[in-house]
Automatic annotation (TrEMBL), chains A, B:
Domain of life, source organism: Bacteria
SUPFAM superfamilies: Actin-like ATPase domain
Official protein name in the record: ROK family protein
Family that this chain belongs to: Belongs to the ROK (NagC/XylR) family.
InterPro entries with a match to the protein in the record: ATPase_NBD, ROK
Amino acid sequence: MKRYAFGFDIGGTNIVCGLVDREGEIIWTRKVPTEAGKGNDHVMAVVANCAEIGLAESGIAAEDVVGIGIGMPGLVDPEQGISVLSSNLHFRNYPVLAKLKELTGMPVCMENDVRMYVYGEAVVGAGRNRRHVFGLTVGTGLATAMVNDGKLYQGGGDFSGELGHVPIEGIDYRCNCGLTGCLETVVSATGLARQAREAVLSGQKTLLADLKQDPAELKAADVSAAYDEGDEVAVTIMHRTGVTLGKALSYVVPLLSPDIIVLGGGVLHAGERFLAPVRETLFERIMPIYRERLELAAAQRNEDAGVIGSASWAFRQFGS
Amino acid sequence: MKRYAFGFDIGGTNIVCGLVDREGEIIWTRKVPTEAGKGNDHVMAVVANCAEIGLAESGIAAEDVVGIGIGMPGLVDPEQGISVLSSNLHFRNYPVLAKLKELTGMPVCMENDVRMYVYGEAVVGAGRNRRHVFGLTVGTGLATAMVNDGKLYQGGGDFSGELGHVPIEGIDYRCNCGLTGCLETVVSATGLARQAREAVLSGQKTLLADLKQDPAELKAADVSAAYDEGDEVAVTIMHRTGVTLGKALSYVVPLLSPDIIVLGGGVLHAGERFLAPVRETLFERIMPIYRERLELAAAQRNEDAGVIGSASWAFRQFGS
């Protein structure tokens, strides 16, 4: 009997869900607005509704689904099944698992969304067949996760993976977390946009000034666009951002010796413009024993790694 | 029937060994010169001889010993039982396990010495009853290890734990590893002595100039001695060294969320002179979720954590 699991990637804007088989193949998928402003119970109802539609549209019977895996942003308590704090979604100490079990009647498990994303990349993406997978997503913010021999690392209080909140020498932006100079204030889509805006506002001669009438509307994609026109300011911003991440990763590699570092999230759209300085900086700062065996790769399943990861996580919990 | 294991901590100068029970109590212990200059086979013979003496002196029967655990400096391949590279001991791709099994007739396992030290601290020292123990030894060099839920983290190629070899902004000492500015060129006993020597040679007004006729003979302990006399140069050196380590640890905490960081090695002799700036720097650079739960503690079994750790490791492998 072929079995399936539901995987949910709950984001601030959209919920992506899918029915996934044991090999990580997506049989059915759907994307719906999260509508977080309508309240926590509403978001849960949207999830339950997706599951119902998934069964109906795919024709898969409920008894062939081992359970539901949920990836949620922010702090989660997987054992208690609670969303401890998700600022984007306005969740605080909300009993996600209890609510979803009640609504769906299925076994449910949950984890942090970045961990589920990296787990997905470890199972079927760039980290496939590697024992030690270190992954990071660089999008609105920067977060990390680690899968060793197929096991997810959670750390004390389930609080691991916040490399984005290391204060970096020479950066003095205030971070939302309360610290100053955090890595993600520069190394993120938000950070790229911020640097672009500052360059324009400080009167630097750059194409970025022409791309948007209001510099506040500049996006990371604009930096890539100006970069491709040979704009020196854009090249400098992209380079500085990549170098900053490369330096931060030079702590991770000797500490943990991952077999592969998988880089995902929105910043992947910048491609080698961003990856090249990351790689160059990192590889010149690590010992040959690491240099010879480490791979730094772009995520392969950027769009659906979260869904595959959380479904695979459900298989791991319930799919014996 | 009460069972025991041998634990060996093989250092560049001395071999410390002990017979340890399952609770981590040392029943018998001995320290002998390593005599690494006499060759690899000789070092192995010293180890085997220690085991023989241990049985004779303790009166414990060989059949009550589950096996031998070996902690060796440098790169080891625990699965193949090989010392891949230990510069201090002049070992290179030497089959430690095969040789010791032949000489002793007992089951033998091996690991890196710092991992065994941290494992010992996790089992019976400062990390007792903590799920996520991150440990580091700061002595001749700086190395790290991690024990999660009683399991030792090894990483790809068994190469984890080299936080000492992260190049740090603003440090430009050449490191033995080939890189420049590695953390351990400053944060180590060697690094403290180096900074003391440089201060004297550059003509700074300091008590350190009076402690040794030849500045090349200054040791880390001299920095502590001058510090206690209120010597400003010594205070600055100790502070800078502690701050440098605190900054490096501010990468470790959000990345891994350990429950406790255990600090051991020769630098412990500096006590709070060193620990205070480490703690202060680290705690002001991490988010409240970590600040509220993290402990930074001195190792409790600094002298014998390595022996207890490798014996406990042997229990883990052979003591079912």
